[in-house]
Amino acid sequence: MTTSTRGTKVPAVLVLEDGRTFRGRAYGAVGETFGEAVFSTGMTGYQETLTDPSYHRQVVVMTAPHVGNTGVNDEDPESKKIWVSGYVVRDPARVPSSWRSRRTLDDELAAQGVVGISGIDTRALTRHLRERGAMRVGIFSGEAIADDAALLARVQDAPRMEGADLAAEVATKEAYVVPAIGEKKFTVAAVDLGIKGMTPHRMAERGIEVHVLPATATADDVYAVNPDGVFFSNGPGDPATADGPVSVMRAVLERRTPLFGICFGNQILGRALGFGTYKLKYGHRGINQPVQDRTTGKVEVTAHNHGFAVDAPLDTVSDTPYGRAEVSHVCLNDNVVEGLQLLDQPAFSVQYHPEAAAGPHDAAYLFDRFVSLMEAERA
């Protein structure tokens, strides 16, 4: 249960599963919440972060110290609700200053029942997560506060992210269509594993009619729309649980339909090709991650939100049931696989977010690459 006490100084406490505790003030709703503690390095774009379904069951720590200065508007959300399970900021803005603002971030969090905490040392918390790794966490405020031992026990009883099958919880329940902007050139079946609103929009800008399908869609559902290409979206949870989407992906590969995946979709492609996946120590989250496109040598500044990665060899071409595959993109911070491509058929994926909501536009060309695959297949 949560309540709002905007304008008051309600005490709050954040408890990590290893016992580290931070005390501050309630921000947003008052009550309690649990999730996986992760940090985001973006200095802006918090609306897009909050409404990204990939953050389902995660408590997001903002490394930027001042958050909320642009308020909340009705144009920037990436879905119909806030998906983070909790929010942690150091110094929340008292008054929003953007002409686009319709309400404060504090009020929006409270209205949607999102429990947060402010006034803590987020730098110390981030350093702790970098050293110890992402872990379970609880935020407690108001009457939810109890003695430390009791709160720690509740955190340690919360579910882990490993083994979590979450895509169907955030995906659409019914198929819908995003029409092409201008002349329709192609039809794409998009499997929604936690899709962001800007993603089908980026395809629509390129003349693509996008049929967004539930995460539970079958291969028959995909091909019922007679697609020129198939897209697998971002989403939350452990890719090791996504047997259904992997099966659909393999059916697409068998038919050699042009295929594009991002984030969770990259991990699905990895599994479909026979590679494993693993959990990163603390993941990549933010809008300033450097990635090299190995096919061109270009370095991009990109938007990320992933705690799992594909375990594929970086410097060799791999033989798969669907032809040769290679790592096409790599993170320059830690050499994590950030993209895959098949060399013998039209399929590729990236681990990050080329729709740039929020984030830089360096990777927008990937949508054009998808269009080029469909054009070549049609020709």
Describe the structure using short key phrases.
379 residues; alpha/beta; eleven-stranded mixed β-sheet
Describe the structure.
The protein has 379 residues and is an alpha/beta fold. It has 10 helices and 21 strands. It has helices spanning 46-50, 105-111, 122-132, 148-157, 167-170, 198-204, 219-223, 243-255, 264-273, 365-378, and strands at 3-4, 11-16, 21-30, 32-40, 58-62, 66-67, 86-88, 91-92, 115-118, 135-141, 176-178, 186-191, 208-213, 229-232, 259-262, 276-293, 299-311, 318-320, 323-331, 337-342, 347-350. The strands form 3 sheets. Strands 11, 12, 13, 14, 15, 16, 17, 18, 19, 20 and 21 form an 11-stranded mixed beta sheet that branches. Strands 2-3-9-7-5-4-10 form a 7-stranded mixed β-barrel. It has a two-stranded parallel ribbon with strand order 6-8. The longest helix has 14 residues, at 365-378. It is globular. It starts with a strand and ends with a helix. The model has no long low-confidence stretch (mean pLDDT 96).
